[in-house]
């Protein structure tokens, strides 16, 4: 395996850290910009929407451009976005910074996966993609708690500054280490989105979207959930994120093994049911337990929550690739967009819930989305079986 792929994973780690560290930064950003936490949640929504749109749109516009130059430029634009955020004096400037960072992150992610496959060769395609995507998992496990810890000592501006420094280092290494003349494949938007029409793909993307929507209704507002709902201090947030991240690594690493042994659909189904259980446990626990016990419940549930939450993405990616292996690079890109559209939607809905009800109610509303995901999954499976039966009869 080409060791240069590791630096593509570092780039993925750097960019994903911004998306996952926000849950701990929202209270301090809201206080400094004189706004509410739900309103500050628009920062996550805008970053995620920009990522979801940037991945297919900018990749299509970039066409067959040199990947080394494209990746480095995307990283440098991301660094600029972090610098703007760190030096911002208004909430509007912060919002603009999220657009810049989100679009750059989407372009980098799509290009990095394609570059990793080119460096590794077709025989190591799955491993190369998993290494790059692994950067996102480690952003949850390490980047988010470290970012929260930096914010605890140097404020949220310090977190953006630290991410900018890491991004600048990564850009320099990529410029020095990646080969010249590694061109991409020019595809139109219709060609990129045409993969949605493949049997099973559209329903699977909807399952991804609904699952992430429910999950990030809670994750994005972990700070008010922990502080206002469970009575924990703000200093507990890095520890909560670290526990969640440890679970995420366990879930991510075990998902592939379980999917091979039990089948990807069964792992996805188990994740959806577990997500429903976690949402209800949080909601009922924060409503009916004392604040001390609710705090202990939230602390105790973080590792299992991370495991079940991050067992979903690899198994779901495996399902989607299985429907149309020949266009895996397109369906995986669409799945990434569905993930970030779900994050954006979940954050937006969660913010409106938080504006009108207590933080403890987030779990009740979030629980609706795994149920909807299960319904879509079941309908998709029935449709797939009917197609197979019809094909066999013919």
Rg of Cα set = 20 Å
Portion in beta strands: under 5%
Number of helices: 15
> Roughly how much helix do the residues carry, as a percent range?
over 70%
Span from first to last CA? 44 Å
Number of strands: 0
Query: Strand-and-helix sequence, N→C?
Result: HHHHHHHHHHHHHHH
Q: Unreliable stretches, pLDDT < 50, 5 or more residues?
A: none
What average pLDDT do the residues reach? 86
**How would a textbook summarize the main sheet?**
none
**Class from helix and strand fractions:** mainly alpha
Question: What is the molecular shape?
Answer: globular
InterPro entries: MFS (IPR011701), MFS_dom (IPR020846), MFS_Efflux_Transporters (IPR050189), MFS_trans_sf (IPR036259)
Organism: Sinorhizobium kummerowiae
Main location: membrane
Membrane topology: Multi-pass membrane protein
Written description of the protein model:
- This protein is mainly α.
- It has 15 helices and no strands.
- The chain has helices at residues 5-32, 37-40, 42-62, 67-87, 91-120, 125-177, 189-193, 201-219, 222-229, 237-262, 264-288, 291-323, 328-356, 362-366, 368-393.
- The N and C termini lie far apart (44 Å).
- The model has no long low-confidence stretch (mean pLDDT 86).
- Residues 1-387 form the Major facilitator superfamily (MFS) profile domain.
- This is MFS transporter.
- The chain crosses the membrane at residues 7-30, 42-63, 70-89, 95-120, 127-154, 160-178, 199-223, 235-255, 267-289, 295-315, 327-350, 362-381.
């Amino acid at each position: 395996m080409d060791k240069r792929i590791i630096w593509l994973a570092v780039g993925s780690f750097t960019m994903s850290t911004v998306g996952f560290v926000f849950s701990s930064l929202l209270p301090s950003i809201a206080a400094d910009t004189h706004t509410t936490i739900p309103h500050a949640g628009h920062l996550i929504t805008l970053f995620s929407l920009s990522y979801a749109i940037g991945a297919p749109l900018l990749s299509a516009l970039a066409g067959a451009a040199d990947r080394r130059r494209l990746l480095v430029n995307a990283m440098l634009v991301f660094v600029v976005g972090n610098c703007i955020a760190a030096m911002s004096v208004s909430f509007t400037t912060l919002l603009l910074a999220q657009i810049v960072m989100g679009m750059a992150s989407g372009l980098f992610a799509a290009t990095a996966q394609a570059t990793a496959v080119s460096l590794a060769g077709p025989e190591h395609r799955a491993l190369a993609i998993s290494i790059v995507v692994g950067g996102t998992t480690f952003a949850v496990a390490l980047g988010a708690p470290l970012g929260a810890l930096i914010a605890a000592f140097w404020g949220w501006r310090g977190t953006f500054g630290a991410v900018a420094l890491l991004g600048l280092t990564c850009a320099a290494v990529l410029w020095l280490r990646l080969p010249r003349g590694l061109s991409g494949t020019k595809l139109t938007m219709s060609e990129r989105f045409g993969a949605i029409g493949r049997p099973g793909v559209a329903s699977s993307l909807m399952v991804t979207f609904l699952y992430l929507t429910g999950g990030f209704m809670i994750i994005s507002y972990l700070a008010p959930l922990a502080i206002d709902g469970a009575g924990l201090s703000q200093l507990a947030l890095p520890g909560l994120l670290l526990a969640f991240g440890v679970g995420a690594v366990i879930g991510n690493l075990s998902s592939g093994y379980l999917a091979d042994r039990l089948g990807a659909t069964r792992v996805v189904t188990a994740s959806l049911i577990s997500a429903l259980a976690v949402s209800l446990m949080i909601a009922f626990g924060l409503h009916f337990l004392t604040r001390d016990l609710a705090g202990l419940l939230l602390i105790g549930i973080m590792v299992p929550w991370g495991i079940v939450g991050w067992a979903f993405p690899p198994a779901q990616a495996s399902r989607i690739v299985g429907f149309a292996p020949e266009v895996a690079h397109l369906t995986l890109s669409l799945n990434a967009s569905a993930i970030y559209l779900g994050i954006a939607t979940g954050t937006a809905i969660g913010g409106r819930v938080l504006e009108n009800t207590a933080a403890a109610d987030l779990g009740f509303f979030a629980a609706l989305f795994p149920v909807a995901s299960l319904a879509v999954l079941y309908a998709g499976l029935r449709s797939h079986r009917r197609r197979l039966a019809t094909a066999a009869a013919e």
